[in-house]
Amino acid sequence: MADNKFDEGGYRVQGAREFVSFSPEFFKGKTLVFEKVSPWEKDGKQLGSRVRVVVAEDKTHYAGKFTNNVGAQLTIRVPGMAPEAFAGCVPEETVLALGRVTYAAARNLSYDGSAQLTVDAELSPVKAGE
After folding, report:
1. Bridge partners of 49?
2. Residue 71 Cα to chain centre, angstroms
3. pLDDT, one tens digit for every residue, the chain (130 residues)
4. pTM of the model as a whole
């Protein structure tokens, strides 16, 4: 998969049409696993981190036909948190918890309900047993 999509946040997810706003509600029932991290910069200023996650499990109930986002990759921007904060995360192993969402938008909504999401949120590793 090309890294330019990671930098642009251009991954598509299914079932997006059902959610009026993209809040933590969209992520309920989904298990997000760390894949990689890079700096989030604009105009030479570091704003935080871009964390690519993979949906490892999707128990979300979508209306209509069966939809499942297992395997979908999402880029979540984490404001104010440097990439070094994710140094202990192991790709394809570390489960991340989505915290407060500060910005969420869908664009390029297609006829099948898929869309590209832009999400700014808090992310933190899930500790064993949680």
Report:
1. 39, 78
2. 12
3. 444 444 455 566 666 555 545 556 778 889 999 999 999 999 999 999 999 999 999 988 777 666 788 998 889 999 999 999 999 999 999 999 998 888 887 776 665 666 678 889 999 998 765 5
4. 0.76
Which two three-digit tokens encode residue 4?
A: 């330019």
DSSP one-letter code for 127: P
Residue 103, H or E segment: strand 95-107
How many helices (H) and strands (E) would you count in the chain? 2, 6
Single-letter residue type at 48 = G
Instruction: Give phi and psi for 86, each to the nearest 5.
Output: -105, 15
Say which residue the tokens 């006829």 belong to. 111
Token digits for 69? 């986002």
